[in-house]
Amino acid sequence: MINIFRTFNPLNIFWLAVLLFIMRAGYVLYAPEKVQLALAEPFVKSMLPVSYADTVSPGFSVLLAGIVVLGQALLLNYLINYYNLLGRPSFLPALMYIVLSGLFQHFLVLSPPLICNFFIIWLLFKLLDFYKAEDAKTTAYDVGMIAAAGTLIYLPFVYLMVCVWIALIIFRPFDWRDWAASLIGYATVFFFIAVFYYLNDRLNHFYQIWTPLGTPFTGIALLDKYDFLLLIPVIIIVILGLFKLQENFFKSYVLIRKTFQLLFFFFIIAAFSFYVRPAFGLSHFLICIVPVAVFFAYYFLYASKRWFYETLFFLLLIGIIYFQFNTF
């Protein structure tokens, strides 16, 4: 299967859709009657002039999530190929994104972290523009607004502003105006939120948006003991990908080296931003799969022993599907 997606063939979009359906069909069979539908933070939902149901059927939620995942996978694939981050075009980033987005059952329904991956991909498009831009202030302002928009959907996204500043360090010589522009862009979005609160005589509640940032951490929704088995091939692939990247690191273009450094920090910051939530679910880690999918794609593009990498990918894929069709 890997060799099929190593080539840049538009027909692979069809196979991506087929794989997406296969990986999600098992959940629909064993899902509860209703699943929660959350598309934004509560303070944003209260501002909307329309309301939507808090729960929907699992089939409908999985369908919406599947459409979102396929769109995000193609956008990520376009990003990687546009900047030639893997050295040659392929559909491996899209394949890896779809596989990782189905890793756990919590990933299969529509959720704010999944929606935020659109903003992460958009951020990466903008941040990579820092490399060749003569004047980055406009782009810095834009990425600040994108980070703020993601925060409206999912509050832990606020910490990805740190990724914006790390990108400025990696890609740009220091200029305080670039940093200020990113902060002004972020503040612009919440300025209009504050105006809305003021016009509705609720300005005294504006600070409550940020109260979860200071809430003590209370717990984590743990994986099922069987789900830990799925992490074994994931960890193996990540380690092999890092070794493969290390082999070719100094042979790569400067943009590629800098981008993989940024992706590493993206993963670390996104993973540890769970602390914003007093109690959170595994769906939070959906915001980590964009950088992981790129590392996966890098390994499978340059791996040489076909029997090994095909077997490893097959075990991961079968494990995901198996645990969805078995509730134990």
TrEMBL record:
<feature type="transmembrane region" description="Helical">
    <location>
        <begin position="183"/>
        <end position="200"/>
    </location>
</feature>
<keyword id="KW-0560">Oxidoreductase</keyword>
<feature type="transmembrane region" description="Helical">
    <location>
        <begin position="282"/>
        <end position="300"/>
    </location>
</feature>
<dbReference type="Pfam" id="PF19992">
    <property type="entry name" value="DUF6427"/>
</dbReference>
<keyword id="KW-0503">Monooxygenase</keyword>
<feature type="transmembrane region" description="Helical">
    <location>
        <begin position="92"/>
        <end position="125"/>
    </location>
</feature>
<feature type="transmembrane region" description="Helical">
    <location>
        <begin position="307"/>
        <end position="325"/>
    </location>
</feature>
<dbReference type="InterPro" id="IPR045625">
    <property type="entry name" value="DUF6427"/>
</dbReference>
<feature type="transmembrane region" description="Helical">
    <location>
        <begin position="60"/>
        <end position="80"/>
    </location>
</feature>
<keyword id="KW-0812">Transmembrane</keyword>
<keyword id="KW-0472">Membrane</keyword>
<protein>
    <submittedName>
        <fullName>Beta-carotene 15,15'-monooxygenase</fullName>
    </submittedName>
</protein>
<feature type="transmembrane region" description="Helical">
    <location>
        <begin position="226"/>
        <end position="243"/>
    </location>
</feature>
<feature type="transmembrane region" description="Helical">
    <location>
        <begin position="145"/>
        <end position="171"/>
    </location>
</feature>
<keyword id="KW-1133">Transmembrane helix</keyword>
<dbReference type="GO" id="GO:0004497">
    <property type="term" value="F:monooxygenase activity"/>
</dbReference>
<feature type="transmembrane region" description="Helical">
    <location>
        <begin position="255"/>
        <end position="276"/>
    </location>
</feature>
<feature type="transmembrane region" description="Helical">
    <location>
        <begin position="12"/>
        <end position="30"/>
    </location>
</feature>
